[in-house]
Amino acid sequence: MTSPLTENIDTRAGRRGSVFVRLLKRPAGAISFGILVLIVLVAVFAPLLAPYDPNFVDLSITRALPSPEHLLGGDTTGRDVLSRLIWGTQITLWGALVAIVTSLVIGVPSGLAAGYFGGATDRIGTWISDAVQSVPGMIILLIVGANTGNDFNLLMVTVGVFMAPGYFRLTRATVLAVRNEAYVDAAKVSGLSHARIMGRHVIRPVVAPIVIQSALTAGMAMGMQAGLQFLGIGGGTTPGWGAAMNEGFRVMRTDPLLLLWPSLALGISIAALAVLGSTLADVVSVTAPLPSRKARRARRAAERAAASGEPLAVTASTGAVAHAAADSAVQIENLRVRYETADGEVEVVHGITLDVAPGEVLGIVGESGSGKSQTVFSVLDLLPKTGSYTADAIWIGGEDVTSLGRRDRARLLGREIGYVPQEPMTNLDPSFTIGHQLIEPLRAVHGMSRADAKARALAMLERVGIADPPRVMRAYPHELSGGMAQRVLIAGAIAAKPSVLVADEPTTALDVTVQAEVLELLRELQQEYRMALVIVTHNFGVVADICDRVVVMRHGSIVEIGEVAQLFSTPEEPYTRELIAASLDGAESRAELDRAFALTGSTAQDADAQEAAAPAATDASTEADRKEVRA
Amino acid sequence: MSATASAAPLLQAKDVVVEYGTRRKPNRVLHEVSLEIAPGECLGLVGESGSGKSTLGKAILGLVPVAGGSIAFDGRDITHASGRDRRALAADIQVVFQDPYGSLDPLMTVGDILAEPLATAGASRAEAKAVVGEMLDRVRLPKHVIDRYPSEFSGGQRQRIAIARALVRRPKLIICDEPVSALDLTTQATILDLFIELQRDTGVSYLFVSHDLGVVRRVCHRVAVMYRGTIVETGDGEQVTGDPQDAYSRRLLMASPVADPALQAERREAWLALRGERAA
Question: Does Transport count among this protein's keywords (chain B) (predicted)?
C-alpha cells in the first residue's frame, strides 16, 4: 500500500554505508579528504620523512634559498625549513586533537543532558555556555600561558574549553528536536533508564552534525594554535607552523619565502578541513539527490531514441468522459504524471481520463499513493519542481488549456479554479493578518480597489459562517482554530466565484464535528454558485455525503467511475467493494464479533475463527501487506 | 474472553487531574476523570482533538505528571510512580502510538527495536530472539525483517512492528493511542483485526484512544466519550456508538459520515436538526 515513490527509497543500511562513498564522489570531498590523509600521514611518519633534524643548526644554510639538498631552504638560524614544517605537522595536528577532544568531552554530554532533561538542567547548562562564550578567550589564553610556562597541551585544552559551547549548542538543539519523538517515549515506556535512552536513541542523530562540526572546529583550533605561537606563546622548542610564521614575519621583507611555506601549510590544512566539513554536511543532508542535469538530458535522449525505434509499452488510458469537452467544467484526457527521483523517472499517474460537469460534485477516492492528489495538482498546474505531467487534452471551464504556458495557466487560478488545501494552517502565512491575505489576491488578481476588496472579503467571511468577520480580518492565523482557518481558505477560494472548486482532502485534518460543518458549507456554496466541485478524499463517508459521481483510483489508474448511488449499491470492481467494506460502517461491532467467535472459536483453530469473523476482502489486503515485505 | 464489569478492575483511574503550563498559570486539560478497565477488556476512549483523551493515556504511562486523583494498576497505586517503580511497570503496561513513522527509532534495525525492552529486562540473547520471533509471528511479519530498518516498511507494517514491540514483555495493558488513524482504510481494517486476535490469544487489556467512532465500535467492549477534559458518557460499545444518550455524544455520532448515500442523507438531516436545536 505504499506509493511507487516510497517503494524506491533505498535502504537505510545502503545510505549509511554510502555516505563516505558519496563524499568521495564529489570532487571537493575527494580532494579535501585526500589532502587531509596526506597531512595525517606526514605527521605520523615525520621522523622518517624529514631529511634533517628540525633543530639541527647548520649556519651555512642560514636564510638559504631552496636548493637540491634543502628543498625549501634554511631559516634564520640555519635549520632546514622542510624538516621543521614536517615536524610542525605533528605538533599542529596534536594540538588540534587535544582541543577537539576537550571540546567534545565537555560539550556533548552537557548538551545531551540539557536537551534531554530540559528544565533547570537546560537553564544552567545554557547559562554556563553563554558565560563561556562571553569571556574574551584570547586574554584567558595569555594568562594561562604566562602562569604555566607556556605549557602547550594545557593551552590547547583551554582552547578546547572555549570551543565547547559550539558542541553544547549543537548537541542540545539536535536532542531537543528528537526528544519529543514518539520512539523516545516508547523507549521510556519500555523501561529503559535515562542513561540508556540517551546512549542508544538520542545520541545517534547527533553523530553526523558532530563530525561535521569537528572538521570545522579542527580548522579553527589550528588557526588558534598558530595565532598563539605567532604571538610567541606555547611555542618553545617545538617547531610549530605558527612559530615558523612568526619568524618569517620578522624577515618578511628580505626573505618572504620563510613566511610563505608555513602560511601555505596552515592555509591548505584549514581550507581542506572547511571544505570537507561543508561537503560532508551537504552529503548528509541530501538523502535523495536529484539526477544531474547532464544525466537527465542523457536519459531523455536515450528515451527518444528508443521511442523512435520501437514505441515504449504504454498502458492504455483508464477512465472515461461523460460530457462533451466544451460543456464540461474540467476535462482531462490521458493524464500522466512523472517524478524525477535518484533512480530515474517514476510514473505515478498512468494515463487517466475524467471530467466534471458544471454544478457537479465529483469525488476522487483512493488510498495513499493512488495518484489522486497528483491528478488535481496537475489540473491546477501546481506540481512540485521534480514532477511533470503530459496529457492529450485538458479543458477548464469549457476552454482548451492544453497548450497554454505556465503563466496563462496560473492566471486561471483564483478566477476559473478555486483551491482548498488539506492543511488549512500551513496554507496561511503566519506573519500576515487574515484580512491582508484575503484582500491582496482580490486586488492583485482582480484589480479591485482596496475598499471594494475589503468589502468583498468581509462579505465572503460572513458567507462562510465566520461569526465576527471584522475581528477575524484583524487576526493572525495562529489565533484561529483549524475549522475557522479552513473557512477562511474557502472564503478566499470562492471570492472570485470560480466555475470549479478543487478541494484536496479538505476535512482530513479536522475533527468530525468540524468536518460536518465544512462539508455542509461546501454543499451550500456549491449549490448557491452552481460551481463544479472536485473533492479528493480517502473517506467513503465524505463521498456518500456530498458527491454526485465518484472516481476510484488505485496505483495511478482509474479503477471505476460511477454515479454515487450505483457505486455504493452495486460496485463493479472488487477493489471498490474492498474499500467500501473497509470503511467499517455496517461492519460487525466487537460484541457481534465476539458472539461469532464464541460460536465457532471454541472448537476451531484460532486462525480459522479469525478468518470466519473477518470480512473476506480484508484478508486479501493482509496478504498484500505481507507480500510487500517479501518483495 | 468477554469482559464483565464485575471482575476486579486491572486499571482504575479516579478523579485524575492533569495540568499543563506553569504552576502559577495552570491549564487544566483533565478534570477529575474516572474510568476502569477489566482484565481482557478493550475500553474505547473517543473525543475530538484537544479533548484530553491522549493525555489520559500519557498520564497512565507516566509520561505526564498527575496533578490530582489516583491511578491504580492491579491494586497498586501508580499515580506518582517514577524511576525504578515506573521502569518495573514496563513489564505490565505498554503503548502503541499513532504515528508509525515517529515511534520507531529510524537508526535501529527491527530486531534491535524488538529486543531492546527484553534486554533491559535482563533477558539473554537467545531468550530475546525466541520471543521476538514469536511476536513477529503473532503480528504476521516474516522473521527476516529483523535485519531491516523501519524506513523500509509501509505504515501498516510499521504499526505491526510497533505492536510486536508492545507485546514482547507480555504486558497486561496496552495503551493504544490512535493506532490506526494514520493508516489507509484497508490497512486499518487488518490492523484492527490483529488487535482483536491478539486480545483473544493473550488476554491483554486495551485502552483504545481514537477519534473515530467506527473504529472503537469495531474493537471496544465498552466506550467512554470525552469532551473538553471530562468524560460525558461511558457505556456498552454498541450502545454508545449506536444510540448515545449524552447530547455531545449524539452530535459526535451524527457528524460522522456513513459510507452509504441514503443512510448518510438521513444522518445529515439528524445532524442538521441537532445543530438547529443547539443554536436555538
Answer: yes
